[in-house]
Design brief:
Elements (H helix, E strand, L loop, with lengths): L9 E10 L2 E11 L4 E5 L6 H8 L10 E4 L2 E2 L7 H6 E4 L11 H9 L11 H12 L17 H13 L8 E5 L7 H16 L3 E5 L3 H7 L2 E6 L2 E7 L5 H9 L19 E10 L2 E9 L3 E6 L8 H5 L7 E6 L8 E2 L10 E2 L3 H5 L6 H6 L15 H15 L15 H13 L5 E5 L7 H16 L3 E5 L3 H7 L2 E6 L2 E7 L5 H9 L5
Parallel strand pairs: 3-8, 3-9, 6-7, 7-8, 13-18, 13-19, 16-17, 17-18
Antiparallel strand pairs: 1-2, 1-4, 4-5, 9-10, 11-12, 11-14, 14-15, 19-20
Helix pairs in contact: 3-4, 3-5, 12-13
């Protein structure tokens, strides 16, 4: 079902927003039709997040903007009960309270079911919550605090909270990067639910950096760049290349694949044996110099634990052995892996990758401070600044300078800082977990090139990702983990999306 040619359910025109000397949005027009999935796409820093926050009432628009819901004007910056009921949001920052259960979190947005005496009807609340989250097919204990839930489970709870009471309603559901941590199986379930919402007559505004999602799901797409609306087009009339060119403002190569695999004679830079951690059951592998090794699997398979374990960043019980043959013939207990100094690009950039109170330069040079100190222990500030500037330029971070606060950067630029911090240590092995989650297409391609150059120069690279696009673009060999063990190894030209998905699911390709 495509968009109806009727009055738009949401119309915004002349939307501008300035923050001090920065013009975040300039005269942006946007329309979402009833029964339409409308994608919103653009590079990091293009103004997408600002637009969403204005719709949600977090920011006020500059004077002159006009907005309508079902033909009724509403103030961009004031949240009324009627508007809240017709405009629903799932933000990148999920807005959940980790100390509370899924049941409590859903009740915070829609209220508690109570008896005539005001007592909460807990069995009814739990039944409602269970019914909502079970649509995604994930086992979630709706009574336990979300602090112990996985990122995927928390994302499902946030989506379920927004979907409460939406059956048959007329309005707009805004989804901002809803699949950033979801593997293929859960993505398809989410897509089915989004289509149900559309088919019931609601409009869906879908913000994503993943081009494959746009073509799989959306009816129309609006591209914004530099705070301006560049184009609104039917998706059926676009190709991945033409959409990428609209985003980047220039010709880009959207079909990014590794040029070559590591030579078969390349020596191993890392060997791992008998790794046990969480669901992992005796995993072992070798990583060759210049190799880009992918590790993937479904949620709960344990693939995401591997980079944390080999870098000594795993919290929780772990056992196994590893060694760096070019350094020593000795095997090291994986519990002591932190002493080897292998850097990690973590999955949770905001929670694990950056320190929000620190500057760009301080985040970048944090693991190098001992090298930057005098014999008396004083920090050589000029050397620190010069090193930060060098790596900011080398990885292409868009920032006012090393002194800028890291939280002022877009997600993609923060990810580049985390990458630069790891690369500045000049390691033999680089481990990455979900390296392109929440970054735009242009930045994704830049990260692919950056990672590829490191491998070409002889660095061994481990990429743990649930994003098949990452695996296709980056990896020369992929290990698929299922039920805690390596179930399949896929190499070279055999690395295709169907092969990866079937290997993860444990189904036949034919």
């Amino acid at each position: 079902m495509g968009p109806e040619l009727t009055r738009p359910v949401l119309r915004v025109s002349g939307l501008s927003k300035r923050f001090g000397g920065t013009q975040a949005l300039r005269d942006v027009d946007l329309e979402v039709a009833p029964g339409e999935i409308h994608a919103l796409i653009g590079p990091n820093g293009s103004g997408k997040s600002t637009l969403i926050k204005i719709l949600a009432g977090y920011h006020h628009a500059d004077p002159g903007a006009v907005a309508e819901l079902d033909g009724e004007p509403f103030d961009l910056g004031q949240v009324t009960a009627s508007r809240h009921d017709r405009l629903r949001f799932v933000h990148q920052e999920l807005g959940l309270v980790g100390e509370l259960s899924a049941t409590d979190n859903l009740a915070l947005s829609r209220g508690f079911a109570r008896t005539a005496f005001g007592n909460i009807r807990w069995p009814e609340m739990e039944r409602r919550t269970t019914a909502l989250v079970e649509r995604f097919g994930l086992g979630i204990d709706v009574r336990r605090p979300l602090s112990g839930a996985s990122p995927v489970q928390r994302a499902v709870v946030a989506i379920a909270a927004a979907l409460q009471g939406w059956e048959g309603r007329h309005g707009v559901l805004v989804l901002d990067e809803p699949t950033a941590v979801l593997p293929p199986g859960e993505v398809s379930r989410l897509f089915d639910i989004v289509r149900e919402i559309r088919d019931a007559g609601a409009g869906v505004l879908y913000v994503s950096h993943r081009m494959d999602e746009i073509f799989a799901l959306a009816d129309r797409v609006t591209v914004i760049r530099g705070g301006r609306r560049i184009a609104t087009r039917p998706v059926a009339g676009l190709t991945p290349r033409s959409l990428a060119e609209l985003m980047a403002g220039e010709e880009v190569e959207s079909d990014h694949r590794p040029r070559a695999s590591a030579p078969g004679s390349a020596e191993a830079v890392l060997e791992v044996r008998d790794l046990w951690a969480g669901p992992l059951r005796g995993v072992g592998f070798a990583l060759a110099r210049g190799e880009r090794l992918g590790i993937t699997g479904l949620v709960g398979s344990g693939h995401e634990i591997v980079p944390y374990a080999v870098c000594g960043a795993r919290t929780g019980p772990v056992r196994g052995r590893l060694r760096l043959p070019e350094r020593s013939a000795r095997w090291v207990d994986v519990r002591d892996a932190g002493r080897l100094g292998l850097p990690l690009v973590p999955a949770d950039r905001a929670g694990e990758g950056v320190i929000g109170d620190f500057s760009v330069g301080e985040n970048l040079t944090l693991p190098l401070l001992e090298r930057l100190r005098t014999r008396a222990g004083r920090l050589r500030r000029r050397r620190e600044s010069a090193l930060a500037e060098e790596w900011i330029e080398r990885v292409g971070v868009r920032t006012a300078g090393p002194g800028a606060r890291i939280t002022k950067l877009s997600g993609g630029n923060q990810q580049k800082v985390v990458m630069a911090r790891c690369l500045a240590q000049r390691p033999e092995v680089l481990a990455l977990c979900e390296p392109t989650a929440g970054v735009d297409i242009a930045t994704r391609l830049q990260l692919y090139d950056l990672i590829g150059r490191q491998a070409d120069e002889g660095m061994g690279v481990i990429v743990s990702s649930s994003d098949t696009q990452d695996l296709l673009a980056l990896c020369t060999r992929v290990l698929v983990v299922r039920d805690g063990r390596i179930a399949r190894e896929i190499s070279g030209g055999e690395i295709t999306e169907p092969a990866l998905v079937h290997a993860m699911e444990g189904t036949s390709v034919t």
